[in-house]
Backbone:
């Protein structure tokens, strides 16, 4: 999914009240931070799940645990994540 | 031997295991209880539902990704849905298991409603599947 497709999807979610504008903006902001760090992430963190919340990188092998840890550290913050070099489903 | 897995009802030639179960949640504060045919996907780390099915429930988004799925599709992780599926207990009796872990939501309506390995792990269940005869079972470990 391209950046534009992702943004359009989040906009649709916002317009249909499935996500707030603040959540959309937060998720897109975290994605931008991810993209800045993508080269080093893809070089150093293969086969891990890497996320960003509130500008902070989180790394785990389990998505549920990564999200839980993000919510403990940054309550209410959105998490942008990607599994590096593997698929979730 | 009792079985609780079968081929897809919509695509009988599909070699993967399926089971009829339920998805439960709320919409505008009212209970919603939907019948679902789950694909038991051993290649899925998380459970995933299609967009229109997700939209039948009030779910809270907690995370998202523009990548991470086969084919490069995006996924939103949402909270508020409970899956229900059947496993056989130690005595061989059918029992209903419910799981309320966060789920993935697809950006479209393509493919199956997926019961991932996170849900079986949460339920303490394992899967046996015979693709030749298209029969099998979920049972407690």
Residues:
């Amino acid at each position: 999914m391209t950046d534009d497709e992702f943004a359009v999807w989040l906009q649709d979610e916002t317009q249909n009240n499935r996500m707030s504008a603040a959540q959309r903006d937060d998720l897109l902001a975290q994605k931008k931070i991810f993209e800045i760090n993508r080269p080093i992430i893809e070089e150093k963190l293969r086969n891990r799940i890497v996320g960003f919340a509130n500008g902070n990188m989180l790394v785990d092998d389990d998505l549920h645990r990564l999200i839980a840890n993000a919510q403990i550290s940054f309550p209410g913050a959105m998490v942008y994540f990607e599994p590096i070099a593997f698929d979730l489903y | 031997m009792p079985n609780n897995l079968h081929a897809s009802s919509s695509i009988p030639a599909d070699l993967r295991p399926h089971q009829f179960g339920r998805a439960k949640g709320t919409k505008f504060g009212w209970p919603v209880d939907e019948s679902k045919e789950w694909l038991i996907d051993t290649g899925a780390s998380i459970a995933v539902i299609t967009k229109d099915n997700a939209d039948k429930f009030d779910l809270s988004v907690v995370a998202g990704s523009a990548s991470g799925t086969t084919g490069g599709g995006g996924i939103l992780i949402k909270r508020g849905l409970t899956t229900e599926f059947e496993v056989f207990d130690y005595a061989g009796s059918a029992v209903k298991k419910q799981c309320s872990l966060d789920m993935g939501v697809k950006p479209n309506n393509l493919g199956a409603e997926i019961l991932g390995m996170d849900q079986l792990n949460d339920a303490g269940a394992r899967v046996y599947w015979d693709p030749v005869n298209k029969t099998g079972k979920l049972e407690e470990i």
